Amino acid sequence: MSRVxxxxxxxxxxxxxxxxxxxxxxxxxxxxxxxxxxxxxNLVERYQDYxxxxxxxxxxxxxxxxxxxxxxxxxxxxxxxxxxxRVEFDDKLELAHNKIKEYIEKKGAxxxxxxxxxxxxxxxxxxxxxxxxxxxxKDLIFKDKLWEEAMAxxxxxxxxxxxxxxxxFSHRDKAGExxxxxxxxxxx
Length: 188
Prior knowledge:
Blueprint: E1 4-7, E2 10-14, E3 20-22, H1 28-62, E4 69-71, E5 77-89, H2 92-107, H3 111-120, H4 131-139, H5 145-157, E6 158-172, E7 178-181
Antiparallel strand pairs: 1-2, 2-3, 4-5, 5-6, 6-7
Helix pairs in contact: 2-5, 3-4
């Protein structure tokens, strides 16, 4: 139920602006909607709490294994785990950028290479680079000490930060096909 206050022994509901509204000024439909939303949210909050505890128990049982797929004995049920990571770069990335600039000044580069380098080191509003663009630099192979040092610095500058763990639960139907169970623990 919405927040209720008592004034002069009369009940008031608090509206969205924080103002008290007399019970007699609230329509039956508004009261019914309020009861519906509150009861549904109560169920959702209980489910979310249970889901969080279940996810914690699953992670505890799995431990720190690197395995990604688990089956029951008769292989009728399957648990797949996918760990998603975010790539971050430290200050060595700027050193790599400087070495690449030095290489380009010394050796020159085609417009295509210049474009790849420009895209790779373009920063977002938050000051981040796109890891996929940085990794495109690794596809370019130049037999030069400066370039190789820059690539080594890129390797040294990256770290993987765990972001989410996805769980996929599947079972076999009577025909032997995998059916995915619709549970989403990743957002919890």
